[in-house]
Design goal:
Layout (H helix, E strand, L loop, with lengths): L2 H14 L8 H10 L5 H8 L6 H13 L3 H12 L7 H7 L2 E4 L2 E4 L2 E7 L4 H11 L5 E8 L5 H8 L4 E3 L8 H14 L4 E4 L8 H6 L4 E5 L12 H10 L3 E8 L9 E8 L6 H24 L3 E4 L2 E4 L2
Parallel strand pairs: 3-4, 3-6, 4-5, 6-7
Antiparallel strand pairs: 1-2, 7-8, 8-9, 10-11
Helix pairs in contact: 1-4, 1-6, 2-3, 4-5, 7-12, 11-12
Bound molecules: glycinamide ribonucleotide.
Length: 312
C-alpha cells in the first residue's frame, strides 16, 4: 500500500484507538454501507466483531481510496475524531489529490491545459474520457499556435476556453514561451498536455513546469525521435520495422526524450502505407494519452531517474 495513504491512516489511527472512541469495525461497516460500498472483507470482520487493528484500518483507507471515496470517508471519521493536528497532513493530502477546506475534505479537481496545433483527435479523446467519466480531471483551456487548428473548434464546442497565441515574426523561442506561460498560469494547471503541439519548447519553459508537461509521440521512443506526424510513419516503413506504436512521455530539455509513462504497440503490416499505419497508431495514441493523464491525475506514479513507476 502506498506510503501517503498509510501515513494518513496512521494520523487518524492514533485518535480512534483512544479510550471511549466510538469508531470500531461495526461503525466502519455502517459507514461503508452508507457510502454505498458493501465490502466483503469489512462485512466479514464486522460479523466477527473483530478488533479494529491497524491493518484493518489501513484496508478501509485503501478501499475508500480505490473507489474514489476517501474524501467522504474522511469527513465521516472527522465528525468523530476532529482533525488531528499534524504538520505533514497538507503535504499528504496534496499527494493524494485531496484538500481540506472550510471544515471539509474534498477531492482536488486536477486541472489540465492542452496545447495543440492541428486537428485535435487526441484532445477529443481526452474530452470524451472526461465526459464519459473515465477521467476525473477538468480541461481548463486549450491553446494553439495555429489559428485554424480544428482542435480549437473541438474545445469551443465543448465549452472549454480555446485560445490562439500566434508567434510573432522573428520572435525568440523563449519569448514566445514566456507569453504562452503567462496565459497558461491564468488557468493554474496541474498538468500541461502536448497533443500534437508543433513547437519545440525552450529549456526555460521545461524548467518552469518540470515533470508537469507530457507529450504524445507517434512511435516507440527512443526510435524515431525528432520526427513529426506522417514523417514518423514513413521512416518506420522505410526502415522495415515490424512493430510501431506510440509513446506518452514527460517533456525534458531534449526532444522526444523524457521519462516514458505509457507505450502501446501496433504491428506493421506488409500492406501498410504511412496513412494506414498512422491511422492504427492514432487509435492507440488516444488510449495511451487517456491512460497517462489518468495515472498522473490520480497521483499513481513516481518518477525515478528515467523510469516512471506505478505506486502500489
Ligand atoms: C499525433 O499523431 C501526435 O502523436 C503527433 O501529432 C499528431 C496530432 O494529432 N505528434 C507528434 O508527432 C509530435 N512529435 P491530433 O491533432 O489529431 O491529436
Amino acid at each position: 500500500m502506498r506510503d501517503d495513504l498509510k501515513n494518513l491512516a496512521d494520523i487518524f489511527y492514533l485518535r480512534i484507538v483512544s479510550p471511549g472512541n466510538p469508531i470500531n469495525i461495526l461503525w466502519v461497516r455502517k459507514t461503508f454501507r452508507e457510502m454505498d460500498m458493501v465490502d466483503e472483507n469489512i462485512e466479514k470482520f464486522a460479523d466477527l466483531n473483530a478488533p479494529l487493528s491497524r491493518e484493518v484500518w489501513y484496508y478501509t483507507f485503501l478501499r475508500a481510496f480505490e473507489d474514489g471515496k476517501l474524501d467522504v470517508y474522511l469527513n465521516r471519521i472527522k465528525e468523530i475524531t476532529g482533525l488531528p493536528e499534524n504538520p505533514k497532513i497538507d503535504e499528504i493530502l496534496e499527494s493524494l489529490h485531496l484538500r481540506y477546506l472550510n471544515g471539509k475534505f474534498s477531492q482536488k479537481i486536477f486541472r489540465v491545459v492542452v496545447l495543440v496545433s492541428g486537428r485535435g483527435t487526441n484532445l477529443q479523446a481526452l474530452i470524451d474520457a472526461v465526459e464519459n467519466g473515465m477521467l476525473n480531471v477538468k480541461l481548463v483551456a486549450v491553446i494553439s499556435n495555429k489559428k485554424r487548428a480544428y482542435a480549437l473548434e473541438r474545445a469551443r464546442s465543448h465549452g472549454i476556453p480555446a485560445i490562439y497565441i500566434p508567434a510573432k515574426k522573428g520572435e525568440k523561442r523563449e519569448n514566445y514561451d514566456k507569453r504562452l506561460a503567462k496565459k497558461i498560469d491564468e488557468y493554474t494547471p496541474d498538468l500541461i498536455v502536448l497533443a500534437g503541439f508543433l513547437r519545440i519548447l525552450s529549456p526555460w519553459f521545461v524548467k518552469k513546469y518540470r515533470n508537469r508537461i507530457i507529450n504524445i509521440h507517434p512511435a516507440l521512443l527512443p526510435s524515431f525521435a525528432g520526427l513529426y506526424g506522417e514523417n514518423v510513419h514513413k521512416a518506420v516503413l522505410e526502415y522495415g520495422c515490424k512493430v510501431s506504436g506510440c509513446t506518452v512521455h514527460f517533456v525534458d530539455e531534449n526532444i522526444d526524450h523524457g521519462p516514458i509513462i505509457v507505450q502501446k504497440c501496433v504491428e506493421v503490416r506488409d500492406t501498410d502505407t504511412p496513412e494506414t499505419l498512422a491511422a492504427r497508431v492514432l487509435e492507440k495514441e488516444h488510449e495511451a494519452l487517456v491512460e497517462a493523464v489518468k495515472l498522473i491525475s490520480e497521483g499513481k506514479i513516481v518518477i525515478k531517474d528515467r523510469r516512471v513507476l506505478t505506486k502500489r
